[in-house]
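Anti-sigma factor antagonist: structure, please.
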Amino acid sequence: MTRHLRVRHDRGHTVLELRGEIDIAAAAEIVPHLDMATAEPGARIVIDLTHVEFFDLSGLRLLYRARQRIADGPGRLRLVCAHPLTLRMLRITGTSRLLPPWPTLDAALEHPEGASGPL
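Here you go.
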């Protein structure tokens, strides 16, 4: 756990709950924890942006890093985001097509295995 990250397990998933301002300094704190969580074969990861107040390109890089590390194996990555400005950035950059955001953590955790998030 860091100032910008809380890691916990919920319903068979590792939840990386990002908090506060996710900028280059925060990303440097988060990367080692993200890499550890995504290193496990078949990792089921949820990145929760519910408590994020600011999210810049460094945050996008974290999402792409996690997706790339999970994409080559049997694991799964889900994203939780409902903040309008962050959602807008995800749409503009195309990230929401690669990693469709769920509106709540419960929705991301309760949905069937093969389903992707709402657009």
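Notes: The first helix runs from residue 24 to 38.
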